[in-house]
Amino acid sequence: MSFGIYVHHPWCVRKCAYCAFNVYTDKNPPFSIWREHISRDWKLEKKFFQEKPMTIYFGGGTPSLAPVSIISDMILEFNPMENAEITLEINPGDLSQNHLQGLQIAGVSRYSIGIQSFNPRFSKLLNRSHTVHDNHELLSLITKVRPKSWSLDLIFGLPDQNLEELIWDIDQALKHNPPHISIYGLTVERGTPLERGVQKGSIIPLDEDIWSDQFLYIMERLRKEGYEQYEISNFARSDHRSKHNEHIWKNGAYIGLGPGAHGFRIDGTRTVQKEKWEEWCSPDHIIIEKPTPEEALSDKVITSIRHIDGIPISLLEENGRKIDTTTMNGWIENDLITCTQTHIMLTQKGIFVADWMTQQLIEQINK
Predict the structure, then answer these.
(1) Which residues contact 256 (CB under 8 A, 6 or more apart)?
(2) Element (H, E) at 359
(3) Same domain, 109 and 170
(4) Hey, how many other C-beta atoms are within 10 angstroms of the C-beta on 205?
(5) pLDDT (tens digit per residue) in 104-158
(6) DSSP readout, 31-54?
(7) Residues 230 and 356 reside in one and the same domain
(8) CA atoms of 44 and 145, how far apart (whole Å)
(9) Is residue 228 located within the same domain as residue 313?
(10) Which domain holds residue 310?
(11) What pLDDT, on the 0 to 100 scale, is given for residue 274?
């Protein structure tokens, strides 16, 4: 069975105001130790998988801070399938053309670029470590080095952001003709500087109606520009979907390596690597979880419903579950879901209440 690999690089130049990921800001990251321990865990985990990896995703953090030689060594050790998708997250302001070309020689075929906003006001609010000039400079550089694919990340629903500012952000992004755009609504995560600002009253979250208007504009605009919305927050041109993320959204198996990384073995076991550096470096650093059948099914519903294909009806049948006909018809009549003979999918109206709809589905199938 095919599988992917996620490698977590935990270091950043500085932590963004909204970020709740496992990130460190050491000035001199111990890259060689990180590399050695990634190899240690790869040797432990690969015995659960028979084939070569079909995707590798270097996330973080800012994995482009790691030396090219270390990224290259990892790819060689993982020995992926021919034409495997190998993605590496990068940020503006810290890369040269030679660096990017070195990464591509090492095997990187796709970049995920953390822009978030082209507006200096919002870049400052989010505590981004780069300038708007850096954004355009990196995107221009990408067109020169010509990777097989690349993606651009944006955030909408920012405090006090109006529709004109969102439109301008999208206009700036489209100038560079990205093959893939990931655009996420801002979430106030616990323990972040953003949350503290909200609690103090210095940051006012965007009104829900304005948020909805922005999201509707995003969906309609990007569709008109030739992008397919294949997941709630992800839009791609033809043949430029993220194979790694799509594999996970469809409940595929993957190995998670690095501090705080999660994995999903073929037998349904989940792995969680400890987040703190000292604990992750110790021998007893992987937590093994065996979800109950109800938990496993709920997890699959959560990821499947966000994808354009929706929830396979066979998934429910295989688990001896079904949704009450009256309830299902009510959702259909209210234009929240649509059904085919094989799948249950969110409508555009349903996408706006995706979290609520997901909870309703889980409650129904676990009755």
Answers:
(1) 6, 8, 262, 263, 264, 271, 272, 273
(2) helix 354-365
(3) yes
(4) 16
(5) 999 999 999 999 999 999 999 999 988 999 999 999 999 999 999 999 999 999 9
(6) HHHHHHHHHHHHHHHGGG--S--S
(7) no
(8) 36
(9) no
(10) 292-367
(11) 98
